[in-house]
Amino acid sequence: VQVVESGGGLVQPGGSLRLSCVASGFTFRRYVVTWYRQGPEKARELVADLSLPDGTINYANSAKGRFTISGDNAKKTVYLQMDSLKSEDTAVYYCRLLRAGYEYWGQGTQVTVSS
After folding, report:
1. What distance in Å separates the CA atoms of residue 103 and residue 82, rounded to the nearest whole number?
2. Residue 91 in contact with residue 85, Cβ under 8 Å?
3. 21-33 burial, b for 16+ CB within 10 Å, e for fewer?
4. Which helix (H) or strand (E) holds 14?
5. How far, in Å, CA of 80 to CA of 65, rounded?
6. What is the pLDDT of residues 61-100, one digit of tens each?
7. CB-based contact 32:97 (threshold 8 Å)
8. Among 22, 14, 11, 16, which Cα is nearest to 79's?
9. In whole angstroms, how far apart are CA 2 and each of 26, 85, 88?
10. For 46, 55, 65, 115, which has the most beta carbons within 10 A of its beta carbon?
């Protein structure tokens, strides 16, 4: 059972990144997958989530219109496409899988938005 995020990096304001969350050892399609982030000296916050069983998607207000969450069941991967990035998007981004009270987290991937 493993959750691995990737795709972070350094990007200029206004730029884009696509984060990936790859799961192994799961019946992937049964989970709700959530992207969280934690910025410097900030609390962890929800960014977006995707219910793989029914396709329901939710976004934080800060992500609406700029970020897109999507999933590929065959690849056991959930993506977070982030466009029009701002300095305040700088954070470690984490992926969490949740089902029936059990949750699994990845180690996080750093996103830094800076000129």
Report:
1. 24
2. no
3. bbbeeeebeebbb
4. none
5. 13
6. 999 999 999 999 999 999 999 999 999 999 999 999 999 9
7. yes
8. 22
9. 8, 28, 29
10. 46
Identify residue 96 by its one-letter amino acid code.
Answer: R
Torsion region of 69: left, alpha or beta (phi above 0 gives left; psi -120 to 50 gives alpha): beta
- Concatenated DSSP letters of 9-53: EEE-TT--EEEEEEEESS-GGG-EEEEEEE-TT---EEEEEEETT
Q: Determine the length of the chain.
A: 115
Give the model confidence (pLDDT) of 21-42 as tens digits: 999 887 888 999 999 999 999 9
Which single residue is written with the structure tokens 């750093």? Answer: 110
- The one-character DSSP state at 75 is T
Task: Specify whether the CB–CB gap between 89 and 97 falls below 8 A.
Answer: no
